[in-house]
User: What shape does this take?
Amino acid sequence: MKQGDFNLLKKKLPEFPGIQGKEKYFNSVVLVPLVLIDGEYHFLFQKRAAHIRQGGEICFPGGRHDPKCDLTYKETAIRETVEEIGIKREKIKIHGNLDTLIALIGATVDAFIATLEIKSPDELTPQKNEVEKLFTLPVSFFERNEPEKYSVRSEIQSSYMDQNGEKVVLLPTEALNLPERYAESWGFRRHRILVYNTRETPIWGITAEIIYEIIQKIRCRS
Assistant: This one.
């Protein structure tokens, strides 16, 4: 590399580093809706319709970021919320966003914190094809109640056996003359899973991680 190329490299280094290779992930966006009820903020949750992916689970509104539809992740958060819970765009006020979460399933999640200018979920008309119901829980519930902590284990496989009992090689370690240890599974790691037990249903996974991060920020007064 010559001096000119090195100078070009320096110019292209990001001022605010992000996530390298983010485009390789499933880039999802959620909006964390807060509703002021009787002087106290509540999270607004939705229960996913039974027939869709991850049916019956509790989540915040959101979906995959499609740059063909939205120029920014913020726009995705607003659009998906309008479509899913049936709120007018002008009744959504976004105040900021959390750090990008990288999920075990190979997705990134950008969460935006917003207040909704409504008094009750009864004012909303959720998309019945995607949302079974809406409900709220006070933020203070999550401040008072710690989540239960569990874990799952992940591993990297260079090959696997398919449903017919045939070996499928993904990374030909022998042909590439890679160290022998990579011919077997490696990288065993445990990942934290949070579960909040609520009066409605357990809230866990990515949604629980987002809630937990928000609660930590509330508790840190400095």
